[in-house]
Write a structure and sequence with these properties.
Length: about 425
């Protein structure tokens, strides 16, 4: 059977998908300090993870009740997010092999900035950079960048298409032989191998070339996580890794089949677009211990903190609704895929808004895999054998313990079954992921 790929999902702040992360008794709270990121990077590299990835957002959200009070009081997903790029630069200095993924927005950045940032990270990490391309989600972000409201859903993707086209041309603006560095002749670079791009489009005007020589991977690995129709079409064209949150196996399988066929229809080899769903392992030495762990973790989540994050993700104020009644029909403009899943689950289980908030805060609908290391591995193996995914994005319940337990107990199980690498075969992230 094929070998899987492993990414670690993180936010450089108090949460991940788990909103109990910062207050869990087994977790550390030094998420503003360098040591924890070093420890996590070294742990995941020891576990031969392909990639460590940081999600990001560009605002403290005031989507819930038109205020950031609840999100700040209880620590929602947007309460604190340090910039992933300096964090990854730090981790890069303490690791040699693990891929380093950062989120950057095509709605609120300029292509020249992004192309420079990732070319730099790729050089300094010797070919381990990845970019999670997002279109951003809410009005609170817009308000930090001179706008009163977030761009419309499809308009954001129009802008993102042009954004990527410009970045790719900037990364290609230096050929691999352009840097001469001949001390004897005094020739620094070959001007005929470095080209302006002279881009003039609907959203951007960029002359180029980039002021950084071609990086080891040529360009960062492109990650994407849109689940709407438009998001999937975008991913089919550009993404080499797709992160997704799918609450059940049937949904995941249909997402996988749909994405692979879209990649093929876009004229690409489906093996060049890896689908990695998020899962949150909660393992114990016995099944009962793992179930206790899950209960403790989930009890720590306040329903309002989940609703605050959901409001941010949906760009919709859920405080308008009664907490103790089911949610009716609503229309939102944020992350369409996640909102659609919330509405479906809430309808099928007849949940009140309070219950939705609790579930969302526990894991943002990321499935929790509970049991002994062997049982967790069984669940992962079953998903792979069922044709649901090419690997997983491991989402922690507490830090760094969740990753330490996974690396010490689940990774050896995966390796023993031939499902995961024993050693890194190459040095770049593209090599780990078998990407061209
Ligand atoms: C698993 C997952 C992770 C995501 N991570 C981020 C993120 O870190 N920052 C962000 O602005 N958007 C993030 N998004 C949002 C999407 O990447 C996307 O840009 C956008 O909201 C549109 O999604 P849609 O196509 O499902 O509507 C994430 C979405 C999913 C499903």
């Amino acid at each position: 059977m094929k070998q899987i790929h492993l990414a670690a999902f993180m936010i450089a702040g108090n949460c991940a998908h788990s909103h109990a992360l910062w207050r869990h008794p087994l977790g550390r709270i030094d998420f503003l300090e360098p040591e924890i990121y070093r420890t996590i990077g070294e742990t995941l590299e020891r576990g031969k993870f392909d990639l460590l990835f940081f999600a990001d957002r560009l605002a403290i959200s005031s989507s819930f009740g038109q205020s950031s009070d609840v999100g700040l009081r209880y620590g929602d997903q947007d309460a604190t997010r340090m910039d992933p790029i300096p964090v990854l630069s730090l981790i890069s200095a303490h690791t040699k092999s693990i891929g380093l993924g950062a989120t950057r927005s095509t709605t609120y950045c300029q292509p020249y900035h992004i192309a420079r940032t990732f070319a730099t990270l790729d050089h300094l990490s010797r070919g381990r950079a990845a970019w999670n391309v997002v279109t951003s989600v809410n009005d609170s972000e817009a308000a930090n960048f001179g706008l009163t409201s977030h761009l419309g859903h499809d308009e954001r993707y129009d802008k993102a298409e042009e954004f990527l086209d410009v970045c790719f041309r900037l990364w290609d603006s230096w050929s691999a032989e352009a840097l001469v560095l001949d001390k004897d002749t005094g020739h620094y670079a070959d001007p005929t191998a470095i080209h302006a791009i002279d881009h003039s489009g609907d959203w951007f005007r960029v002359k180029g070339p980039l002021n950084i020589p071609r990086s080891p991977q040529g360009r960062p690995v492109i990650i994407q996580a849109g689940s709407s129709g438009r998001g999937r079409a975008f991913a089919a064209r550009w993404a080499e890794v797709v992160f997704t949150v799918q609450p059940d196996r049937a949904r995941l399988k249909s997402f996988y089949v749909d994405m692979k066929s879209r990649v093929k229809a876009a004229g690409r080899d489906p093996s060049q677009c890896l689908i990695l769903p998020a899962v949150m392992p909660l393992s114990g030495t016995t099944e009962a211990e793992a179930i206790d762990k899950q209960r403790l973790h989930n009890e720590l989540v306040h329903p309002l903190v989940g609703l605050s994050t959901l409001s941010s993700h949906a760009n919709y104020d859920f405080a308008k609704h009664s907490l103790d009644e089911p949610l009716g029909e609503i229309s939102t403009t944020g992350i369409q895929g996640l909102v659609e899943s919330v509405l479906r689950i809430s309808e099928s289980q007849n949940l009140t808004l309070r219950e939705i908030g609790k579930i969302y805060g526990q894991s943002v609908l990321t499935p929790q895999l509970v049991g002994t290391a062997k049982q967790v591995t069984d669940q992962m193996e079953a998903m792979v054998r069922d044709g649901c995914c090419d690997g997983f994005a491991i989402s922690p319940a507490y830090l760094p313990g969740s990753f330490v337990e996974f690396v010490d107990h689940v990774v050896p199980e995966l390796q023993g079954r031939g499902l995961f690498r024993q050693e890194f075969a190459g040095t770049t992230l593209r090599e780990h992921l078998h990407l061209n």
